[in-house]
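Title: Request for sanity check on Protocadherin beta-14 prediction

Description:
We are preparing a figure and want to confirm that the structure record we downloaded matches what your pipeline produces today. Could someone re-run it with the sequence below and paste the raw structure tokens into this thread? We only need the token string, no images.
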Amino acid sequence: RQVLILFVLLELSEAGTESVRYSVAEETEVGSFVANLARDLGLGVEELSSREARVVSDDNEKHLQLDLRTGDLLLNEKLDREELCGSTEPCVLHFQMVLENPLQFFRAELQVTDINDHSPMFLDKQILIKISESTSIGTTFLMESAQDLDVGTNSLQNYTISPNYHFYIKIQDSGDGKLYPELVLDRALDHEEESELSLTLTALDGGSPPRSGTTLVLIKVLDINDNAPQFAQKLYEVQVLEDTPIGSWIITIFANDLDTGNYGKISYTFLHASEDIRKTFEINPVSGEVHLRSCLDFEVIQFYTIRIQATDGGGLSEECTLLVKVIDINDNPPEVTISSFTKSIPENASETLVALFSVRDQDSGDNGRMVCSIQD
């Protein structure tokens, strides 16, 4: 009895240890030239057709195409950096050029650079701030930040406020690359003189020319309130399974205010919340209960850092942080992608590369560990 044994060699010897690197700006037109891949890899153009050359992306999407007549690498679609990579920078797409007979492959990567195609945007068209007339000069008031999908110098760089006699803007750098505006009281308020002010807050990016977005800041000047809300703790942590049903209670946040009447009534809101946080969670403004608003996905977001502000009826506020950790469940099967497979093998061949494949599992920990085997 004759037994034919096929060896799938996982440790491949590549044509080069270094990946070939290219760069292209997002939104570049379909069919645009990226590079001459054949020349850069030291291949003859005649080899491309005879050896069935093709480009294979790691994410199995057809972002690129190879012209077998010229060896040119061309864009197969318009690339949206924000859609591909979100806030991750640099935005790099990994791909391979695969040749047959003999089987050979070259690693390469394409960096998608950002263009200033998004303006800063405030999620709220109006920001309401209540300030007591007895508030000391120099007091700062937190305000919602703008969102900008661009990165680097094209992202949010500055805030300005419309000219007025009472306030100026101070910009806080959170340390994670995000800028938050704070309204600073520069001149005392008088409820009897002016009970309400309307200001325009403008967010500017660093593009050339810069893009901008605005929101209305409505300030209501109130009577004296001498106690601010106090949270029971500054940091709340909770773990939530990614398959938790929509509408489920997550946690209750509580703050206390020693004042009575309207000054002691507390309203809870999310502070500097991104669109993802607002889509995923909601907080009851009266009870402080946080509920799940949409499905969680560990493979997309592993944790949420939510800043919560408690504001009393007199406009004084305090904040705390809620850290929601998403717990992974085994909800993704392993994926096998075959890049190439040799259709025929000489009977006297030994240690011949017959197939090139990759496996991945989007789960984490034990749920994402895989074992490859050939059955029977």
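Thanks, this matches our download. The chain is about 5% helix and 40% strand.
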